Amino acid sequence: MFDCTNCRNPCVELKKDQSNVVIHGNKVIACVYSSSLPQGDLDTIMEELQDRVKTVHHQLGYTYSGSHNAFNNIRGAWTRHIFSYIGWNMFCNNSNVGNSCIVPLPSISVLKFTDLFDTDASEALKSGLLRRLSQQGVELTMSNPDFICVSDITPEDMAEFETPITNLSIETQIKLSNAYTVIKNCCSYSSLKFGIAMKTSLRSDRRYQIAYEGSILKALIAHLQVRYWDTDFQTYYYAVVANKVSNDDRAVLSAPATHSIVDVHTPPVKAIDDIFEVKSTDDLKQGIQIMIDRSFPSL
Known about the structure:
Number of strands: 7
Distance between the termini: 51 Å
Helix content: 40-55%
Largest sheet: 5 strands, mixed
Radius of gyration: 21 Å
Shape: globular
Order of helices and strands: EEHHHEHEHHHEHEHEH
Structural class: alpha/beta
């Protein structure tokens, strides 16, 4: 049995004013998987992590509320870590993807999506599309995809992605979370293979957010295709949901990318190319493999 009373880096602690207990989700998953990786049913993994939190409360003498709502955001973060390591390792072990990687992105407050691109592509968006919109009093707002897949990484930068992940320690979590810094300001206009929105639930407002994200992302890529006179590449956008996906959810997520319905001479494009309902780490692997096969046809 682990001893929380002597832990130097507690995952559960009282706020300074002693009013409430704070749960550090990153420390919880690091505690359980400091030398291994979560495998199997996602709900079982989440229950195991929540049980660890319950045990910590009891060992430290804190009252455990057991409120499911308290774990909503934490479960999302845990699922994100699991997806991150699986995506990372699948690209490590796949020679067909070449110099490519899949990385999580931080919020837009930390990283502007346009800052992923190299100087030429970024300037094409900022001085072209975004400036023209601004001159008309229009502000293009968007949130970052939860994950992106990028190709054509330089061999020097690719060295950062060649070592498989073997645990979810705090150090590994930081490595995964900061991986985007390697490709920041480096992506060419055509190197973005796909983006991913990952959710642990689909409330009515959340599913419209996903459709909006996919629509905006594809509009930006379409603008780059026009600016560079190059339509030979395609960028996909996917929804990965660690929960039940209803028929109503699928109907909303079948919306077209709005820029594609303007020209009557071209077929509309889906904002979301595919929806993956995942219940286990195997489901996540199968979903990522489908994304890989679509973007990186076998040679």
